[in-house]
Backbone:
């Protein structure tokens, strides 16, 4: 029985680690696209002072 508990705990922690790794990858991709949008937005408004955000 203790072996089963350790096995289940290892599976949970391994799955959690994988999920956190995937979330980090998603965060990096979103940051990359946000930076591209930021640079493109700056290029469109090069001559005048505008807001750096689009809200």
Residues:
């Amino acid at each position: 029985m203790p072996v089963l508990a350790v096995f289940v705990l290892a599976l949970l922690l391994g799955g959690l680690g994988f999920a956190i790794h995937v979330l980090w990858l998603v965060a990096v991709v979103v940051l990359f696209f946000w930076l591209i949008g930021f640079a493109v937005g700056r290029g469109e408004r090069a001559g005048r002072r505008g807001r750096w955000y689009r809200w």
Observations:
- Helices lie at 2-44.
- The radius of gyration is 22 Å.
